[in-house]
């Protein structure tokens, strides 16, 4: 399902924005940080160059978070401040994406009508096309309610040359009472192991030493994949495969879910020298009753 889509699908030549500068402002988690790296790659491919100074930018992308109420407040406060930035140059373009955009949809431009493009979490590869449409037809909102694919062909622009985020899974199948992630990120979709391994080998070839595997529930990785005679690739097996890649010296992962943390994974953390011997794991309560009420059991 999409909302407020112009039928026109005019795509400008790739070089049309040569010389323009973009800036990306990111709120939230590591997944958002990596999404912003991918968006930077898309902008670079369109001929733009990155600016660390928002005042020098022609295009500004705000990548939003909605995990807490104050994240929403921060978004709309930020957009209020950006009204002046937008008004100082008539050709400046303001784009809003990420989880808050996925949740609020048209409300974003109702509260901040100076926003040119509102895009959700499932269609970031369309950002240039939507920017073109906004320039031709006026402000646009495009939100896709669900996806069956995980974007793998985007060349991310990473901030570090020695460490990198690698997405292994998107979405979440849990229904924790306090968490909005499943409604804005969708159901769990795992990348094929071969795609992950090939990406990490490429990163190692480029000099990356440390990788962080990203997913909303990494230790449920692979449950949706059926390969090799219906054998499922589980997270622990993926750790062993990545550990064998030459050049990679440190492996981290986030975020695991306590109920899905298998003893085999703990053993891998203990036995594999490259896997960091620390675990980022959310422990909301020591009470089984409270955890059950939170749907964390």
Reconstruct the topology from this structure.
Layout: E1 21-26, H1 30-45, E2 49-50, E3 59-64, H2 69-87, E4 93-98, H3 99-104, H4 107-111, E5 117-119, H5 127-137, E6 140-142, E7 163-167, E8 169-170, H6 181-185, E9 189-190, H7 193-205, E10 210-214, H8 235-243, E11 250-254, H9 263-271, H10 288-293
Assembly context of the chains: single chain
Distance between the terminal alpha carbons, to the nearest Å?
32 Å
Poorly predicted tracts of residues? 1-15
CATH architectural category of the largest domain? 3-Layer(aba) Sandwich
Class per helix and strand makeup: alpha/beta
Secondary structure: helix percent: 25-40%
- The domain tally reads 2
Strand line-up in the sheet with most strands: 2-1-3-4-5-6
CATH homologous superfamily heading of the largest domain: Cobalamin-binding domain
The overall pLDDT, averaged over residues, is 88
How many individual helices?
10
Secondary structure: number of strands: 11
**C-alpha-based Rg, rounded:** 20 Å
N-to-C SSE series? EHEEHEHHEHEEEHEHEHEHH
Q: What does the main sheet amount to?
A: 6 strands, parallel
Strand content: 15-25%
CATH topology of the largest domain: Rossmann fold
Name the CATH class of the largest domain: Alpha Beta
C-alpha geometry? globular
Task: Give structural notes.
There is one protein chain. The chain is of the alpha/beta class and 297 residues long. It has two domains: 14-142, Cobalamin-binding domain (Rossmann fold, 3-Layer(aba) Sandwich); 163-271, 2-Layer Sandwich (Transcription Regulator spoIIAA), CATH 3.30.750. The chain has ten helices and eleven strands. Strand 10, helix 8 and strand 11 form a beta-alpha-beta unit. The two termini are 32 Å apart. Residues 1-15 have low confidence and may be disordered.
């Amino acid at each position: 399902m999409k909302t407020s889509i112009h039928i026109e699908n005019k795509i400008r030549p790739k070089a049309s924005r040569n010389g323009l500068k973009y800036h990306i402002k990111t709120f939230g988690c590591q997944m958002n940080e990596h999404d912003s790296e991918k968006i930077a790659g898309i902008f670079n491919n369109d001929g733009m160059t990155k600016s660390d100074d928002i005042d020098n930018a022609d295009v500004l992308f705000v990548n939003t978070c909605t995990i807490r109420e104050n994240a929403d407040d921060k978004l709309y406060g930020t957009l209020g401040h950006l009204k002046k930035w937008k008004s100082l140059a008539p050709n400046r373009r303001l784009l809003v994406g990420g989880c808050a955009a996925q949740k609020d949809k048209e409300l974003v431009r109702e509260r901040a009508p100076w926003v040119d493009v509102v895009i959700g979490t499932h269609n970031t590869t369309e950002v240039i096309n939507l920017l073109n449409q906004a320039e031709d037809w006026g402000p646009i909102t495009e939100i896709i309610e669900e996806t069956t694919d995980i974007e793998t062909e985007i060349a991310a622009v990473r901030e570090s040359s020695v460490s990198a985020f690698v997405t292994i899974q998107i979405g979440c199948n849990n229904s924790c009472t306090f968490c909005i992630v499943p409604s804005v990120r969708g159901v769990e979709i795992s990348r094929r192991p071969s795609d992950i391994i090939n990406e990490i080998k490429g990163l190692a070839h480029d000099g990356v030493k440390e990788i962080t595997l990203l997913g909303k529930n990494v230790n449920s990785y692979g449950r949706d994949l059926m390969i090799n005679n219906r054998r499922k690739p589980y997270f622990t097996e993926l750790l062993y495969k990545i550990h064998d890649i030459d050049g990679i010296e440190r492996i981290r992962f986030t975020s695991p879910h306590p109920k899905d943390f298998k003893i085999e994974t703990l053993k891998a953390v203990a036995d594999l020298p490259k896997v960091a011997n620390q675990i980022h794991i959310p422990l909301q309560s020591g009470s089984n009753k409270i955890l059950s009420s939170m749907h964390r059991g």
